[in-house]
Amino acid sequence: MTSLISLDNSQIEYRFSDKNHCETLLFLHGLGANLSQFDEQYIFFKDIYNVLLVNLRGHGNSKVAEPSNACDYQLSKIAEDVTALVNILGIKKVHLVGNSMGGNIGFEILNSHGYLLSSLTTFGTTVKLKASCWHILTLRLLYKLIPKACIAEISSCTGRTHLSRQKIKKMMLCAQKLTLQLVLPNISEFDYCSVIRNSKIPILVIKAEKDKSINKAINSTVEEIENKKNVQLICMKDVGHFANLDKPHHFNNMLRAFIASKSRISK
């Protein structure tokens, strides 16, 4: 069961297992996906932590009041939606877990509202990226012209198992083509190296072995990551961009071990 909340210029859909546990896990999906990506994590963690799943603006039933251009989907504005929701729900701190663009939102929140984070875990996310203009223009044109069914089929190829491919396809069939086009320019160029450099909270960067394009970018900033004592880099074998869907059991246990080692509950 999901809920809707109205913010200043957006409406956000979320699912919250508020069971009065001491700590809260917040899961954020990437572009074109939705909160159902973390159904397995919701079930696995809800008896240990409060679990919050969010549909980012433009996904599911989350929407901007009057979307007009890419400015409505700036990462900083999406991050503001998330922090506003966390504050309204009365949550003081979260262990944030973000996939792809969800990881970018995690870095945005670390930069602007770091006091809200107990830890940050990213997968399918890089710290730094600069895509060429022609590449972005080509992708935007493809998102505009190609039928959604084709986009879903192509996206599903990133899955490593039959079940993960089915799930990815199902999520992408629900994606809004306008959102894909308007978000894309905002995730084509960013640099969170200084955010990492100034960070003090525990950070886990999961490098999915088969996520080739993201790994190229991660490799270019690996020194930045490994030089920080509070940052841990782990390679997860035989998984792609949606690591939690490819190997949910392995992912859950890895995440549980990391969070438990940093958690107030374990101390």
TrEMBL record:
Claim: Hydrolase is one of the keywords in the record: yes
Keywords carried by this UniProt record: Hydrolase
GO BP, sorted A to Z: acylglycerol catabolic process
Xref: Pfam families: Abhydrolase_1 (PF00561)
Single Gene Ontology MF annotation: monoacylglycerol lipase activity
Gene Ontology cellular-component terms listed: membrane
Transmembrane intervals: none
Domain AB hydrolase-1: 24-125
Protein name (Swiss-Prot/TrEMBL): Alpha/beta hydrolase
Organism: Winogradskyella luteola
